[in-house]
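U., I forgot to send this yesterday:
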Amino acid sequence: MSQFMFFPNMHWRNLVLNFPESDHHSLPPSSWRVTQKINESIISYTQKEAEETKELPLACAKFECETLEDSSNKAILIVYMEIPCEDTECAAEGTYETPLSVRVEFTAHYLLTLNGCRYSPGAIQYKEETQTSGDRHAFMPGGKIYYLVIGLFWNLSRGERDQIRLAFQDAYSLFWDKDSGKVYIQGPFKPLDLANMGIPRSGQLDPYGPKVLEIWGLAIAPKGTVDYDIPIDCLEQFGWIL
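Result:
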């Protein structure tokens, strides 16, 4: 299944996504058109692994997109799509919550947006839907699909992007104060109130490095198998885009 393309361009390019008002967040409604795919990857599990980890197999893709009203207003669309288990080619049996990777990514961008953080792309919109057989871009009818639109870091100059990465490294340490409604910066990056963010305490975030830059949209990894165990200042030599 690892060689399968879950997000073919023919099904996703020019796809229009409408994001209505939501009871789950305060982001304003908007509509976006997909223009091109940046990359895709999968998080695969067997049925047994899914049961043990309580996590569903996922396909993930990043796209460039633009608003319907103004094609110069561009952003990044991140899509997580539930897919079959690799050994059964069927949906995982059992009841599962929203995947941890989806909760972490949305919660992080949303909290940073609410609290005016300058050093990470902010959340613009988010929604989740159930895949149906009538959707040309769906893969597993009945499974969930999650959409997150974030600000386009890549519209900035290389010098500005480098400055943001340096600042983000210093700021890669946040904790949420639910009483004041603010995000604070202090010490190694360990959110102190994971339960309040909807993230189980067993869900540990990665130490600062290439994988963190990719997750937060501050670097683009090369296609194929990715080696994350290399110094950040050598990333471009290994095909990364900074």
